[in-house]
Structure formats: C-alpha cells, structure tokens
C-alpha cells in the first residue's frame, strides 16, 4: 500500500545524511491532494540528466487528505549524495516487490549503483514520456501559485523604448487577442510546454494528457554550459548567471544605433538606439578579441543569444498551434536573471499577449517517471499535428 512509502525514516548514518544535505542545491516542498496520487503505486522518482540529478518522493501531509511532494536537486558530481538523500528521507519498499521508477541517461548508465544504494528494482521510463506526463500532472494537480514563480514586471534595464516597424507590427497583429480572449487566457490545459534540460522541445499538451511534439531544441542546456566553459571558463550555471547580471550586451552585440537610422523617418522605422539586434555582432564589425572582452559582457550576450532563439521558437509554436497558454520548465529557468531576460525579449518581440508561466521546478521528468508505466507511451505520446 502507499503507506509503506510515505512515513519518513532515517535509513542512513547521521554522517551520510549530513553529507547528502551539504550537497543539496535546493529542496522545494509542495502540498498535494491525495486524489492526485490515486492509482500511483511508486511514490518516488529520479531523473539524472547530463548535468543535474532530480530526486523526489512523497510523504504524508499535514491533514488526512493531503500529501507532500519533496523536490530535491543535486549536481551530477554529487549523484551518490542524492541517492543517500532519498534513502535517508523516506521509507522505500525495499526487498521483494520494491520498485523505483527512473528516467534520464544517467539513471540508465548508473542502474547498478542505484540498485545497490537503494535496494530496489528499477523500472526505466522513456524520457520523453516522463517529461510530458510530469508536466501534465503538475499543471493539472497544483494551483498556479504553488506550481509557478510569481509574475513580475519586465525590468528593461539598459534598453529603453520599443521597436516599431513593419516586422514588429506584423508580429503584434499575429498575436493580438480580443478582450474576450485576454480574459480567458488563463494558464491551463491545453497548453504549450517548453522544457529545457540538456536538450529541449516544445510540446502541445491536451487536457486528456495526450502530447504532441511541436519542435525540438538541441541548442539547449548542455550547449549553454558548453558555451560557458569555452567563452567564460566556467560551466557553472549559477556563475554564468552572476556574470551576465553584471554585463552589458551592447559592448558585444550590435545595437540599433550601430546598424540603422533609428529616427522615425528612417527606412526601418522607429527603433530604440540601444536595442540589441545581433548577438556577438560587434565581434565581426570591430574585430573584437575574446581576451579583451569582459566575462560579464560575454555572459550577458550569451544568455541573450539563447533566449532570443527560444522566444522566436515559442512565438512560431504558439502561432502553429493557436495556443496562448505556455509553461516553461527545466532548470534553465530557475535563476531570476534568466526569467527577466525572457520577459525583456517578450516585451521587444511584442509577445505580451502570450500567457507565459515558469514552473518552480525542473522535476517534470522525475514526476513523470514516478507516475508512469512503460506502456503509457502508447496512450499518451502522439505524432503528427495536434488534433
């Protein structure tokens, strides 16, 4: 029964528990109604991607009709600490019949280590199925205030004004909503779910849980960290964010003033002089040398380059599926600076009519693994155009 899984316990030594806690990047706990766990027989899950390990488990809630969902994050270099964390925090049904659902390339690679540490039979759930099922389940079962980061206003920072030209006017017209549509554009299903882990993709999720891949994104989290290592000397996501926060894109990127006449009478229409246009464009025009550019400016341009690509991908996907409700998931968005850069790009690409929300957790894969069975792929993964 589920009760075997939800009583907290200490199965490890105090030293191992302390070590696991020391390596914990973050832990979030959200409240679930018990109805959300109906027919779910495995109450824990692991998703080990190419750089981060996501661990989750379920415990009893503060009332008879609730559970608590614990979401923990570790670097892959501390993978064993993540396993110790799971072993020390929750009772798992070890021995005969004990089972754990996992996903992600690392869980396949380190299958024997997981089994040795936790004493459980492992069942691997397809990674794409895990992402789509996890996102659908979270959106359906958690209120928006627990599921997503609070909404904030765009901090335009070093950029002022807004581009106004035929291209922008056309984009604005495409995404213009009537007052009735705006009133009904609540974050809900059906929706687009964009996840960015090592790779990424945009998925159309239906109310019944069926999912359709709209497009994939291979220049995603793994490449982002790779660019950071080559350009900045670090593959630490947090360090890249802190550098970008202090940088100025205009020192590396082409701005409006560098390329066109920005006055109202110019052939390209009114365009803010400080509007960044081509990421890293000045490297070509001014023959910039990397060692003479600040890491802060390079980081700011790098972050913006990935975001610009993503924003345009989202706008195209929204147009293709006629969808205004968008959820963004994955640890790519966990830093406030990244979310602010997304908001800035939304502002300048006239995408305010899209209802974009950011999941507070990158555990969609681990959630999907926990709640799914391998045979669910036949039921939920669909191909071709959404119907």
From TrEMBL:
Gene3D superfamilies from the UniProt entry: 3.30.420.40, 3.30.420.510
Keyword Ribonucleoprotein among UniProt keywords: no
GO biological process, one term: coenzyme A biosynthetic process
Sorted UniProt keywords: ATP-binding, Coenzyme A biosynthesis, Nucleotide-binding
InterPro entries: ATPase_NBD, Type_II_PanK
GO molecular-function terms, A-Z: ATP binding; pantothenate kinase activity
A GO CC annotation given for this chain: nucleus
Entry protein name: Pantothenate kinase 4
